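Board work, copied verbatim: Endolytic murein transglycosylase
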Amino acid sequence: MKKAFVFLSALMLLLAAVFAALLFLPKTNPQTYRIKIENGQGIAAVGNRLAKDDIIYSRHVLVGAAYMLGVHNRLQSGSYKLPQKVSAWQILQKLKKAESDTVTVQIIEGMRFAQMRRIINQTADLKHDTAGWSDEKLLKEIDPEAEYTRAEGLFAPDSYELDAGSSDLQLYKLAYRTMQKNLNQAWEERQSGLPYKTPYELLTMASIIEKETAHENDRRHVAAVFVNRLNIGMRLQTDPTVIYGMGDAYNGRIRKADLRRDTPYNTYTRNGLTPTPIALPGKAALEAAAHPSSEKYLYFVSRMDDTGLSQFSHTLDEHNAAVRQYILKRK
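↓ predict structure ↓
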């Protein structure tokens, strides 16, 4: 009996020693490693990934220690940078502190540039080097050779991840380069016969499409409506441009007086495209502007239902019938 007790005690000490070694002994890896934890992700999934990538000695040890520390159900989403030489214990301590090494900034399609600046200025863990700069100074710093005078539309909406403590200027430069890449690609691949003289005009059209619809099935038809109108000299007559021209005066509704009040962005009173984009368009809107559908639509109206789709028409009579059906709810 005594021998069995001694044996079990020795075995437990050995297992404890092995557990401790696998937990505290650093493992040297070829390079630094970054692990991204999504919302709701548990320690088991994290342990599996670290073990699969050969970053830790044992996922069982990592998971067991996480339960003992109470870290298993308190993982904070984020991106964590691990050094080349790191132990499972050090990883758990990093996760426990929930100190992500990166900052994620989400810029949504259809935002105005002013909204983008507000989000960046309010993002903690970035150095706000440009907070007091004008848009003009920011553009010159990003691209001294650019001929743009307004920043609207020139920055790609996307999810950007930077190292904590990075300058906000780095984010602006990345978003600007991304938009230039997306725009140049759309311009090079555009279909023939479009009424755009420059890539900037395509960008402007994409911003209007972005504000008119977020529905994948409608984008190319909306683009066709505006392209067809430009081709026959018809005014675009689109509310989002009027709203942009109203600036801070817009309070959530457009009155008839607003549609009649002339501004450079009122496409009810002025021909052609607006002088600048009116929002930050995504890749899908750029592609729609570069590849409108072949339909000869001239009008569209929201169906005002759960689908989010619009009803497109070739003639004014068709359009008026659609307005009666979907807006006035009369057959």
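The chain has a mean pLDDT of 90.
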